[in-house]
Write a structure and sequence with these properties.
InterPro entries: NUDIX_hydrolase-like_dom_sf, NUDIX_hydrolase_dom, NUDT19. One of its GO terms (molecular function) is hydrolase activity. It comes from Blastococcus brunescens. The chain is of the alpha+beta class. The chain has one domain: Nucleoside Triphosphate Pyrophosphohydrolase (Alpha-Beta Complex). Helix content is 29%, strand content 28%. The strands form 2 sheets. Strands 1, 2, 3, 4, 8, 9, 10, 11 and 12 form a 9-stranded mixed beta sheet that branches. A 3-stranded mixed beta sheet has the order 5-7-6, covered by helices on one side. The longest helix has 19 residues. The N and C termini lie far apart (45 Å).
Protein backbone atom coordinates (compact mmCIF):
# COMPACT_ATOMS: atom_id res chain seq x y z
CA UNK A 1 0.00 0.00 0.00
CA UNK A 2 1.48 3.35 -1.04
CA UNK A 3 1.40 6.47 1.06
CA UNK A 4 -0.18 9.80 0.13
CA UNK A 5 1.28 11.71 -2.80
CA UNK A 6 3.84 14.35 -1.72
CA UNK A 7 2.58 17.89 -1.46
CA UNK A 8 3.87 19.69 -4.61
CA UNK A 9 4.08 22.93 -2.62
CA UNK A 10 6.42 21.47 0.01
CA UNK A 11 9.48 22.13 -2.16
CA UNK A 12 8.29 25.72 -2.64
CA UNK A 13 8.01 26.22 1.13
CA UNK A 14 11.45 24.69 1.64
CA UNK A 15 12.81 27.10 -0.99
CA UNK A 16 11.24 30.08 0.77
CA UNK A 17 12.79 28.93 4.06
CA UNK A 18 16.22 28.88 2.38
CA UNK A 19 16.51 25.09 2.57
CA UNK A 20 16.98 24.53 -1.17
CA UNK A 21 20.24 24.83 -3.08
CA UNK A 22 19.29 26.58 -6.31
CA UNK A 23 20.61 24.62 -9.30
CA UNK A 24 21.92 26.41 -12.38
CA UNK A 25 19.57 25.87 -15.35
CA UNK A 26 20.85 23.92 -18.35
CA UNK A 27 20.32 25.36 -21.82
CA UNK A 28 17.73 23.36 -23.76
CA UNK A 29 15.58 23.48 -26.88
CA UNK A 30 12.04 22.27 -27.51
CA UNK A 31 10.24 22.07 -30.85
CA UNK A 32 6.47 22.27 -31.30
CA UNK A 33 6.00 20.13 -34.40
CA UNK A 34 2.82 21.14 -36.25
CA UNK A 35 0.62 19.94 -39.09
CA UNK A 36 -2.75 21.12 -40.40
CA UNK A 37 -5.81 19.07 -39.47
CA UNK A 38 -9.54 19.25 -40.09
CA UNK A 39 -10.02 21.24 -36.87
CA UNK A 40 -6.97 23.49 -37.09
CA UNK A 41 -3.33 22.91 -36.16
CA UNK A 42 -2.33 19.57 -34.66
CA UNK A 43 0.70 19.00 -32.41
CA UNK A 44 3.00 16.05 -31.92
CA UNK A 45 3.26 15.01 -28.27
CA UNK A 46 5.27 12.42 -26.37
CA UNK A 47 4.27 11.04 -22.98
CA UNK A 48 7.34 10.76 -20.79
CA UNK A 49 7.81 7.47 -18.98
CA UNK A 50 6.72 7.37 -15.34
CA UNK A 51 10.30 6.45 -14.38
CA UNK A 52 11.77 9.71 -15.72
CA UNK A 53 13.37 12.05 -13.18
CA UNK A 54 11.93 15.13 -14.91
CA UNK A 55 8.34 15.51 -16.15
CA UNK A 56 7.34 11.90 -15.47
CA UNK A 57 3.98 11.07 -17.05
CA UNK A 58 3.73 14.46 -18.73
CA UNK A 59 2.89 15.02 -22.39
CA UNK A 60 5.65 17.15 -23.90
CA UNK A 61 7.04 18.38 -27.20
CA UNK A 62 10.31 16.90 -28.54
CA UNK A 63 13.30 18.52 -26.88
CA UNK A 64 16.24 18.26 -24.55
CA UNK A 65 19.49 19.78 -23.32
CA UNK A 66 22.11 21.32 -25.57
CA UNK A 67 24.96 18.89 -26.24
CA UNK A 68 28.47 20.44 -26.24
CA UNK A 69 28.88 19.15 -29.81
CA UNK A 70 25.84 21.20 -30.88
CA UNK A 71 28.22 24.19 -30.69
CA UNK A 72 30.33 22.85 -33.58
CA UNK A 73 30.67 25.78 -36.00
CA UNK A 74 31.30 23.41 -38.92
CA UNK A 75 27.79 21.92 -38.89
CA UNK A 76 26.19 22.38 -42.32
CA UNK A 77 23.69 25.22 -42.07
CA UNK A 78 21.07 26.89 -44.30
CA UNK A 79 18.87 29.78 -43.25
CA UNK A 80 19.22 32.80 -40.96
CA UNK A 81 22.75 33.17 -39.60
CA UNK A 82 23.60 32.57 -35.94
CA UNK A 83 23.85 36.33 -35.35
CA UNK A 84 20.25 36.77 -36.49
CA UNK A 85 19.10 33.91 -34.28
CA UNK A 86 20.97 35.51 -31.38
CA UNK A 87 18.83 38.62 -31.79
CA UNK A 88 15.66 36.54 -31.97
CA UNK A 89 16.55 34.46 -28.92
CA UNK A 90 18.16 37.22 -26.82
CA UNK A 91 21.48 35.44 -26.37
CA UNK A 92 24.95 35.37 -27.91
CA UNK A 93 25.55 33.87 -31.36
CA UNK A 94 27.41 30.81 -30.06
CA UNK A 95 24.50 29.78 -27.82
CA UNK A 96 21.95 30.67 -30.49
CA UNK A 97 23.64 28.34 -32.98
CA UNK A 98 23.80 25.56 -30.37
CA UNK A 99 20.11 25.97 -29.54
CA UNK A 100 19.05 25.71 -33.18
CA UNK A 101 21.27 22.65 -33.64
CA UNK A 102 19.85 21.06 -30.47
CA UNK A 103 16.32 21.77 -31.72
CA UNK A 104 16.97 19.94 -35.01
CA UNK A 105 18.82 17.06 -33.33
CA UNK A 106 16.22 16.51 -30.60
CA UNK A 107 13.35 16.64 -33.10
CA UNK A 108 14.95 13.85 -35.12
CA UNK A 109 15.81 11.82 -32.01
CA UNK A 110 12.31 12.06 -30.53
CA UNK A 111 10.07 12.06 -33.60
CA UNK A 112 12.10 10.76 -36.53
CA UNK A 113 11.49 14.07 -38.36
CA UNK A 114 14.61 15.70 -39.78
CA UNK A 115 14.70 19.42 -40.59
CA UNK A 116 17.46 19.14 -43.18
CA UNK A 117 18.11 19.19 -46.90
CA UNK A 118 20.84 18.65 -49.45
CA UNK A 119 23.07 21.61 -50.22
CA UNK A 120 20.94 22.49 -53.25
CA UNK A 121 17.78 22.69 -51.12
CA UNK A 122 16.15 19.30 -51.77
CA UNK A 123 14.34 18.44 -48.54
CA UNK A 124 14.76 15.12 -46.79
CA UNK A 125 11.62 13.05 -47.33
CA UNK A 126 10.94 9.64 -45.79
CA UNK A 127 13.22 8.88 -42.80
CA UNK A 128 11.57 5.64 -41.67
CA UNK A 129 14.09 3.18 -43.18
CA UNK A 130 16.49 1.01 -41.19
CA UNK A 131 19.54 3.12 -42.06
CA UNK A 132 17.83 6.27 -40.80
CA UNK A 133 16.82 4.46 -37.62
CA UNK A 134 20.42 3.39 -37.04
CA UNK A 135 21.52 7.01 -37.39
CA UNK A 136 18.81 8.19 -34.99
CA UNK A 137 19.89 5.67 -32.35
CA UNK A 138 23.54 6.63 -32.82
CA UNK A 139 22.64 10.26 -32.13
CA UNK A 140 20.74 9.31 -28.98
CA UNK A 141 23.63 7.15 -27.74
CA UNK A 142 26.15 9.90 -28.46
CA UNK A 143 28.09 7.63 -30.83
CA UNK A 144 27.79 10.29 -33.52
CA UNK A 145 27.31 14.07 -33.35
CA UNK A 146 24.76 16.05 -35.31
CA UNK A 147 27.55 17.48 -37.46
CA UNK A 148 28.99 14.05 -38.24
CA UNK A 149 25.56 12.63 -39.06
CA UNK A 150 24.67 15.46 -41.44
CA UNK A 151 28.09 15.49 -43.12
CA UNK A 152 28.03 11.76 -43.75
CA UNK A 153 24.70 12.12 -45.55
CA UNK A 154 25.77 15.34 -47.35
CA UNK A 155 22.98 17.29 -45.63
CA UNK A 156 22.65 20.75 -44.11
CA UNK A 157 20.52 21.81 -41.16
CA UNK A 158 17.55 23.96 -42.20
CA UNK A 159 17.40 26.78 -39.67
CA UNK A 160 14.83 28.55 -41.86
CA UNK A 161 12.23 25.90 -41.03
CA UNK A 162 12.21 26.90 -37.36
CA UNK A 163 10.59 29.92 -35.75
CA UNK A 164 11.32 31.17 -32.21
CA UNK A 165 8.32 31.05 -29.89
CA UNK A 166 9.14 31.51 -26.20
CA UNK A 167 11.66 30.96 -23.40
CA UNK A 168 10.81 29.19 -20.15
CA UNK A 169 13.14 28.77 -17.17
CA UNK A 170 12.38 26.11 -14.57
CA UNK A 171 11.56 27.66 -11.15
CA UNK A 172 14.40 28.04 -8.66
CA UNK A 173 12.93 25.54 -6.21
CA UNK A 174 13.05 22.66 -8.73
CA UNK A 175 15.89 20.14 -8.26
CA UNK A 176 16.43 19.88 -12.07
CA UNK A 177 16.33 23.15 -13.97
CA UNK A 178 16.35 24.09 -17.66
CA UNK A 179 16.50 27.34 -19.60
CA UNK A 180 14.47 26.24 -22.60
CA UNK A 181 13.85 28.04 -25.87
CA UNK A 182 10.65 26.90 -27.56
CA UNK A 183 10.55 26.75 -31.36
CA UNK A 184 7.72 25.95 -33.78
CA UNK A 185 8.10 24.06 -37.07
CA UNK A 186 5.83 22.48 -39.67
CA UNK A 187 6.05 18.76 -40.42
CA UNK A 188 8.00 18.68 -43.72
CA UNK A 189 6.16 17.34 -46.73
CA UNK A 190 6.73 13.62 -47.21
CA UNK A 191 8.02 12.97 -43.68
CA UNK A 192 6.24 10.96 -41.02
CA UNK A 193 6.62 10.77 -37.27
CA UNK A 194 6.86 7.37 -35.65
CA UNK A 195 6.77 5.75 -32.22
CA UNK A 196 10.38 6.23 -31.21
CA UNK A 197 10.36 4.77 -27.67
CA UNK A 198 13.25 5.75 -25.40
CA UNK A 199 12.17 8.38 -22.88
CA UNK A 200 8.56 8.20 -24.13
CA UNK A 201 6.07 5.36 -23.65
CA UNK A 202 3.64 6.75 -26.26
CA UNK A 203 3.41 9.42 -28.95
CA UNK A 204 0.42 11.02 -30.63
CA UNK A 205 -0.81 13.79 -32.92
CA UNK A 206 -3.69 15.78 -31.43
CA UNK A 207 -5.59 18.92 -32.43
CA UNK A 208 -4.54 21.82 -30.21
CA UNK A 209 -8.10 22.43 -28.98
CA UNK A 210 -8.64 18.75 -28.13
CA UNK A 211 -5.35 18.61 -26.23
CA UNK A 212 -6.43 21.52 -24.07
CA UNK A 213 -9.89 19.99 -23.51
CA UNK A 214 -8.36 16.69 -22.40
CA UNK A 215 -5.96 18.55 -20.11
CA UNK A 216 -8.83 20.46 -18.48
CA UNK A 217 -10.68 17.16 -17.98
CA UNK A 218 -7.66 15.65 -16.25
CA UNK A 219 -7.11 13.02 -18.96
CA UNK A 220 -3.81 14.43 -20.19
CA UNK A 221 -1.06 15.92 -18.01
CA UNK A 222 0.84 18.97 -19.20
CA UNK A 223 3.53 21.11 -17.66
CA UNK A 224 2.77 24.81 -17.30
CA UNK A 225 4.96 25.87 -20.23
CA UNK A 226 3.40 23.24 -22.52
CA UNK A 227 -0.16 24.19 -21.58
CA UNK A 228 0.56 27.89 -22.03
CA UNK A 229 2.10 27.28 -25.45
CA UNK A 230 -0.96 25.29 -26.54
CA UNK A 231 -3.31 28.05 -25.37
CA UNK A 232 -1.29 30.51 -27.48
CA UNK A 233 -1.44 28.20 -30.50
CA UNK A 234 -5.21 27.81 -30.12
CA UNK A 235 -5.56 31.39 -31.40
CA UNK A 236 -4.31 30.38 -34.89
CA UNK A 237 -6.40 28.84 -37.67
CA UNK A 238 -3.57 27.01 -39.44
CA UNK A 239 0.13 26.23 -39.38
CA UNK A 240 1.02 28.98 -41.86
CA UNK A 241 -0.38 31.66 -39.54
CA UNK A 242 1.58 30.21 -36.62
CA UNK A 243 4.82 30.39 -38.58
CA UNK A 244 4.04 33.95 -39.68
CA UNK A 245 3.52 35.19 -36.11
CA UNK A 246 6.02 37.76 -34.83
CA UNK A 247 7.15 36.70 -31.38
CA UNK A 248 9.18 38.59 -28.76
CA UNK A 249 11.16 35.94 -26.90
CA UNK A 250 11.93 36.89 -23.32
CA UNK A 251 12.47 34.68 -20.22
CA UNK A 252 9.42 33.45 -18.31
CA UNK A 253 9.83 31.86 -14.89
CA UNK A 254 7.43 31.08 -12.07
CA UNK A 255 8.25 32.76 -8.78
CA UNK A 256 6.84 32.25 -5.31
CA UNK A 257 5.54 35.33 -3.51
CA UNK A 258 3.91 35.62 -0.09
CA UNK A 259 0.75 37.73 0.02
CA UNK A 260 -1.04 38.13 3.36
CA UNK A 261 0.73 35.04 4.65
CA UNK A 262 -0.29 32.94 1.63
CA UNK A 263 2.18 31.58 -0.93
CA UNK A 264 1.26 32.32 -4.51
CA UNK A 265 2.99 31.28 -7.72
CA UNK A 266 3.24 33.97 -10.37
CA UNK A 267 4.80 34.14 -13.81
CA UNK A 268 7.71 36.58 -13.97
CA UNK A 269 8.17 37.80 -17.54
CA UNK A 270 11.42 39.70 -18.08
Amino acid sequence: MTGPAPDPMEQVHRYLRGEVDVAAPRDAATVVLLRDGADGPEVYLLRRRSSMAFGAGMHVFPGGSVDPRDRDASIGWAGPAAAEWAERLSCDADLARALVCAAVRETFEESGVLLASTGDGAMVRDTTGEAWEADRLALIDGAVSLGEFLARRSLVLRADLLRPWSQWITPEWAPRRFDTRFFVAALPEGQRTRDVGGEADSVTWLPVAETLDRHRDGALELMTATATTLRELAEFADVASVLAAQRRVRPIMRRAVVVDGEVRLVHDRS
